[in-house]
Fold each of these.
Amino acid sequence: MIKEALFYSKILLFGEYGIIQDSMGLSIPYKAFRGELKFSSENFEAKEKSQKALNEYATHLQNLVNEPGFHAKIDVKALKNDIEKGMYFDSTIPQGFGVGSSGAIVAAIYDKYATNKFGQSKEEIGKNEIVELKEIFGKMESFFHGKSSGIDPLICYLKLPILIKGKSDLGTVGIPASNDSSAEEGAIFLLNSGTPGETQPMVNIFMEKMKQEGFRNMIKSQFKKYNDECINAFLKGDTKPLFKNLKNLSGLILDNFKPMIPKTFHKIWKQGLESNAYYLKLCGSGGGGFVLGFTQDLEKAKSLLKNHELEVIYKF
């Protein structure tokens, strides 16, 4: 397969749950995990499992393309023919870990089988096209999650960071380059809970909580404020206000999103807040999968988290 056929995972740095309520969001591609559509004449368990899922997805797409509000033309017949010829989705993206496993599949299918696709030149794609792509991808990904914003497939497809300011106000954005050549000081990292999470049950919990006036007020005032300030500071490369707001955001999540935080992380979440060595936040919907960590002293964070698998994804 040519290089362009690779689709990377994504990481939502900021905006989990908040983007449902019009907070800002910032999502970036993450190249450590990837997937691609491949052909193989051999039979093996991963291929058979993938083909079964792709066949079920093709049926979903067949129904979707006949809906009047769906604006993409997907060649479902060609997709089914290719599956019969031995095509499967070869992926290293872990499922249920908040890094866009289903988003990569949607992006790959759209890229290969959409006959009227946007983004032939992905660097020059306009804001209106991005919004329409998001809507298309949301409907395509609904097969996996029941309801989808379309953000994950959008990141996987464009392979560029996306800044979300509202449901119809989003676009590509430049982020400060990771300082990989410097001494290890500050970093963003992933912690692995070891167990997958499911998006829909976590979203259901959130929507139930939103029925409570106190929780609604917290989201609209405190959560939105800290989240949006984190994004603004990160994009400016200004670490002082970033970590001040990160601490507030991390504490707010610990106090109000406990069901979404894997139980094995409750203690170390609090440890980070008390020591100021690192701050943790949800990576996606939570419930399992990865948790995001931010630190200004990577060696100190590694020491305190020595019993946990820590994967650095960005250096300050």
Note: The radius of gyration is 20 Å.
Amino acid sequence: MNFSSSSLDFSILPYQEGVNPPVTKPNPGFLTDIGEEGMRALLDRFYMGLFESPIKDIFPNDREEMKKAAQHSADFFIQICGGPAYFNQNRGAPQMRGRHAPFPITPTARLHWLVTFEEALRPIIEQKLSSEENIQSFWNYINVFSQWMINTRD
């Protein structure tokens, strides 16, 4: 997808099996810019996109359960972006690789996940709700983070 901005780079890093690149947390400014409600709206859009995506089978097939999953994910992203530790308070330590282990996450599933996330970010970009630097920082984080979640070959 190409947004009107020429300085955002939403390219997807290639996956290399057995390589877990270092993850850099997003700029806290992303959360400051969009706020907790903006983060929750982003994750709701993202999860509703996943609900209709080619990888929907690895997620809850009930819309209300999917909305709950979106809120758990929002808690995680709020925390990882420097906000309150909602995830830790409500779910314990993130340990995301372990939490995702029961679900077959392939390199192709990762690509669908990232494309869906990019689509969910579109309103933030179009409405200029955050600086390009902060949006890029968030994208860079999920681009690498998503590599860590892969646990099954295509």
Note: The mean pLDDT is 93.
Amino acid sequence: MNITATQARQDAGLSQTRRPADEAIAADARALSEQLKAMRERLFAPTAMKTLRSFTSGEAAKLIGVSDGYLRQLSLAGEGPQPDTGLGGRRSYSLSDINALRRHLAEQALAKGNAAKARSYLKWRDPEAGEHLQVISVTNFKGGSGKTTSSVHIAQYLAMTGHRVLAVDLDPQASLSALFGYQPELDLTGNDTLYGAIRYDAEARPLKDIIRKTYFDGLDLVPGNLELQEFEHTTPQALGARHNGTDAGPLFFARVQAALADVADDYDVVIIDCPPQLGYLTLSALCASTSVVVTVHPQMLDVASMNQFLYMTSDLLSVVREAGGELNFDFLRYLVTRFEPNDGPQAQIVGFMRSLFGDRVLTSAMVKSTAVSDAGLTKQTLYEVGRENFTRATYDRAVESLNAVNGEIEALIHAAWGR
């Protein structure tokens, strides 16, 4: 339901008087929804949909793994997609252009019998070589740990480096979907989240019908909204029905895995942004995962909270394992987020974690940066905004941190594939 600004002010005024709490909260929700819609239309005019910026020839060359001079030679020779040319002959490439160039260079390398070189350009997994779909759950049940920010940057980095990626928003709050330009209460009509593929009744539909393309070439999305919470309510009912002899299909912990199996051939990596709670959704995601990244903010209360999270996860997963669930992770890593290197107590906590967990703590950390938070004001990530929008030193420091973390995760993925 859309409302005008006048109606929103009237609702706000009425909320000062005695009225049912549900009506007051609904009025606030409608007012906020309308303002978010107006903001999206203003930021992403004229279509009110996000688009990805183009990349300079230098950025494109770095992403592909060639020199800028070689990229210029390809352009002059008319090989591969031709870049847009701006003032002063500056060349720019879309991400789809970059991926097309990767395919072109990989074909050239294969024609010369250099399979290793081809793979350096085109990083798609090879099922025939035993390279399985990598499903990575990014999780923690402490809010503010940087879980969604980490998820979206990992997914975008992997897409930019030539992988086929599926991002799954499993959080009913749908922050990941918002970063991809979706406003759940406006853009999703029902049965179009992962819940649509894992529900227990006849309304279930194939995951391939739910997946949406994004403005990132090679990166698709399963959006989220509040209907995901239904899985937490219907699962106990399904377990009760099974106990009474009624078959409701796969047990809850196998349903996400079964849904992903139907689209596995189309992707190399799946990134799941888990909800900040340890419910049936999170457990089902963990059971579908080949790897797990646990985000943690280096504060003592956050570390103590993570300790309880690990205990609870262990207890619940042991029950799942006894019920027949398979739990074999290629890697489990702790990712330090919002890290301030000059903060003494934070540095001590990171050192404490490294002494306990060793190499299970990623070597790199996501540093706290105003560049990331400033990009978030317009529902963008650091990979989407140009360097010209920030102080160069601030931008470069933040991107260097992101690339170090995500490059480390990429290396773990490739190691799991035996590369």
Note: The radius of gyration is 23 Å.
